[in-house]
Specification:
Layout (H helix, E strand, L loop, with lengths): L3 H21 L3 H25 L4 H31 L13
Length: 100
Amino acid sequence: MVPISYYLILSAILFTVGVVGVLIRRNVLIIFMSVEMMLNAVNLTFAALALHFLSLNGQIFVLMAMVVAAAEVAVGLAIVMTVVRHKDTTNIEDVNLLKG
């Protein structure tokens, strides 16, 4: 049996890498992947704690979070593809379509 601390440490590392990716990178696709990594780190924490406390609530919450994340990716990629069609770039600094 793997100790719960290993899961929590792995989750913290994944979350930290995701935060660094969001803060440092300027490519929209990399930022989306970093946000997804952060969501998966939180899902890993919920699943590990659900296993530790022998509760099904955490696993149900993980399932719902995965459904929301899939919808977020679909909408986010649609927005990115629309921006790329108009500006021919995925760099955050070059995109100013949302300014009035």
